[in-house]
């Protein structure tokens, strides 16, 4: 039901529309979906007809909670949305109640406006509601790619949506459907694969999980497929993120390759119904995607028929041109519909207002953008009197629940890729006399969760949320008579019946993870050497956001597991080590022998990797 004010306006509109239709050859019968669509389009058009330019441009503006000059700016400027970027926590704290109260406060303020159009509140819940303490942290996408399990990916997205909704929040800047073609990129782990088909299949599954089949479902969250298009195909040395060599760089490929490699996931997520798409910071042959009218409008909106809205990336519009107002005009005219302006939201509103008044940006373009945004809000049921705008407190019992953790544990199991297993090293018996555990990531939730965990960049140690480390999981799994000892550096393993060494990368996000050297660090190499020197079988577990250069460490290991970034449920690793479950994961990225081979993807002429895409042992 519309609010009273809107009902009057809408009734007038319908009478007019009814007279018009009666004069035409109205279709004899229309489907419910078509009626619903007509209904929403009619409601959107009647609302737009009543909006001022300030109200329209406000809907096109998204500020960050930590960037608001005044929380009432949500109403003062008729903002369409607020976000929390990685680590942008509510002032009151990082627990689920602080998040919920912060969201509800801003939503209530948004309803104080004349038209009372609710805000969309966006977060990056890219592997669980990962900003919030106590949330279940799932494996990052690279691990989910190794599962090849679309149903599981959909189930994880569904659970993530429930945990996000438990805080009231209704928009998730996910899934990332990038096709990462160079593992030196810091965002490789956000990709499902180097192969477009797998990225497309799992990306679509994630959209279905987040949104369900009905965006107005109170447990649905709006998805944002990202980053359109080719963020994973940039050329090394062209990076535009601080000193990063790849991130936000330039994709220097033909249109044929762009369409063959990087576009397929966007066909799939559009078919899955993603309500929004986020353009990429990166460029194509020197032209920033955020100002690329051909790719944003001609290809995505016209050729591919995309009817949702485009949300810019975080301050990405400012990269389009050195002059802010020019950049705003270029990006909006290119097809960006809502601007992610964490701090410069007032400047954006002022600039766009001037651009419309001077005719640089047409009223038609503004109305098209607002129509796309409002259509999504109507589809989400946000405009209805009984809209679920406040958090459903009954969801709190499901937030971080054991049931959710069991699904995450299963995902960890299915994401593990067994690269080597000689002399029957695995599975281990739970009753052997002594297991020595070593390595910097054996007892570290932060390392096993990776970036986008509590903090944007993530962090080593216990600073993050609860969960089970791999060492804790091993201790829980073994029999009462089995001794488990631990040392960071691998020393002290003498006499053990097996040594498990957990090594790899420490957390990073985006361009901070770009590198030209994926060789294991000296600490890790030394830990495996010390384990090997003990004479006991060595099981090495790699915690990383991508394949790494293993060198002799692989030779020193009797068994070797790629565990990616498994998240909080380390039990899943123990489940496989002790044979409760056989490993089933298959590489979703090619594993190179040396840095000389990088970048190396399936189909390359000189394709001679250490482990091929799709490789994975079992027992
Ligand atoms: C970041 C990322 C994007 C994210 C956005 C909001 O810079 O590029 O993936 O959704 O900003 O946090």
Which helices and strands appear, and what pairs or packs with what?
Blueprint: H1 4-23, H2 32-48, H3 53-59, E1 61-64, H4 73-76, E2 81-84, H5 96-110, E3 120-123, H6 141-147, H7 150-165, E4 171-172, H8 196-211, E5 222-228, E6 250-251, H9 255-262, H10 264-271, E7 276-279, E8 283-284, E9 287-288, H11 293-303, E10 309-310, H12 324-334, E11 339-340, H13 345-357, H14 363-379, H15 402-415, E12 417-421, E13 434-438, H16 445-449, H17 470-477, E14 483-487, E15 498-504, H18 522-533, E16 538-543, H19 552-556, E17 559-564, H20 571-577
Parallel strand pairs: 1-2, 1-11, 2-3, 3-4, 4-5, 5-7, 6-8, 7-10, 13-14, 13-15, 15-16, 16-17
Antiparallel strand pairs: 8-9, 12-17
The protein binds alpha-D-glucopyranose (GLC).
Alpha-D-glucopyranose (GLC) binds near residues 124 and 226.
């Amino acid at each position: 039901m519309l609010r009273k004010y809107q009902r009057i306006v809408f009734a007038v509109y319908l009478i007019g529309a009814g007279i018009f239709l009666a004069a035409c050859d109205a279709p004899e019968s229309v489907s419910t979906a078509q009626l619903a669509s007509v209904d929403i389009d009619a409601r959107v058009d009647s609302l737009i007809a009543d909006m001022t330019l300030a109200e329209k441009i406000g809907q096109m503006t998204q500020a960050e909670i930590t960037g608001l000059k005044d929380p009432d700016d949500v109403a003062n400027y008729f903002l369409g949305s607020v976000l929390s970027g990685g680590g942008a926590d509510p002032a009151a704290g990082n627990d689920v109640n602080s998040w919920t109260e912060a969201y509800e406060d801003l939503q209530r303020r948004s309803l104080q406006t004349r038209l009372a159009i609710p805000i969309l509140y966006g977060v990056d819940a890219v592997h669980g509601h990962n900003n919030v303490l106590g949330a279940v942290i799932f494996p990052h996408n690279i691990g989910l790619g190794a599962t090849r399990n679309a149903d599981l990916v959909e189930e994880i997205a569904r659970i993530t949506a429930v945990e996000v909704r438990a805080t009231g929040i209704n928009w998730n800047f996910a899934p990332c459907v990038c096709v990462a073609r160079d593992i030196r990129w810091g965002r490789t782990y956000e990709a499902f694969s180097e192969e477009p088909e797998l990225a497309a299949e799992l990306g679509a599954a994630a959209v279905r999980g987040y949104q369900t089949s009905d965006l107005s479902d109170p447990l649905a969250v709006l998805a944002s497929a990202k980053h359109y298009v080719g963020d994973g195909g940039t050329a090394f040395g062209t990076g535009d993120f601080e000193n990063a060599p790849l991130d936000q760089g330039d994709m220097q490929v033909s249109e044929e390759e762009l369409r063959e490699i990087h576009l397929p996931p966007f066909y799939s997520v559009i078919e899955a119904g993603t309500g929004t798409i986020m353009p990429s910071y990166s460029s194509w042959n020197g032209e920033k995607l955020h100002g690329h009218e051909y790719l944003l409008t001609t290809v995505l909106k016209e050729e591919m028929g995309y009817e949702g809205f485009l949300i810019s990336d975080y301050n990405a519009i400012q990269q389009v041109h050195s002059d802010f107002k020019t950049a705003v005009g270029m990006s909006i005219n290119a097809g960006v519909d809502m601007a992610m302006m964490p701090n410069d939201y007032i400047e954006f509103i002022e600039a766009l207002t001037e651009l419309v008044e001077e005719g640089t940006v047409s009223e038609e373009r503004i109305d098209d953008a607002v129509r796309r945004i409002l259509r999504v809000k109507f589809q989400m049921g946000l405009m209805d009197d009984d809209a679920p705008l406040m958090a459903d407190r009954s969801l709190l019992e499901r937030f971080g629940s054991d049931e959710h953790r069991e699904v995450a544990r299963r995902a960890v199991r299915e994401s593990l890729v067994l690269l080597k297993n000689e002399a029957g090293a695995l599975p281990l018996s739970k009753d052997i006399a002594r297991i020595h555990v070593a390595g910097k990531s054996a007892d570290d939730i932060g390392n096993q969760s990776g970036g986008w965990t509590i903090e944007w960049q993530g962090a080593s140690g216990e600073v993050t949320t609860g969960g089970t480390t791999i060492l804790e999981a091993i201790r829980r799994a073994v029999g009462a008579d089995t001794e488990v000892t631990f040392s960071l550096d691998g020393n002290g393993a003498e006499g053990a019946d097996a040594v498990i060494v957990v090594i790899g990368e420490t957390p990073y996000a985006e361009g901070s993870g770009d590198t030209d050297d994926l060789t294991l660090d000296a600490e890790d190499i030394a830990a495996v050497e010390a384990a090997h020197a003990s004479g006991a079988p060595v099981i090495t577990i790699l915690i990383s956001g991508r394949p790494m250069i293993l060198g002799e460490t692989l030779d020193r290991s009797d068994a070797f597991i790629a565990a990616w970034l498994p998240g909080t449920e380390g039990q899943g690793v123990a489940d496989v080590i002790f044979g409760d479950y056989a490993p089933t994961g298959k590489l979703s990225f090619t594993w190179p022998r040396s840095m000389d081979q990088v970048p190396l993807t399936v189909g390359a002429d000189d394709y001679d990797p250490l482990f091929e895409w799709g490789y994975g042992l079992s027992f």
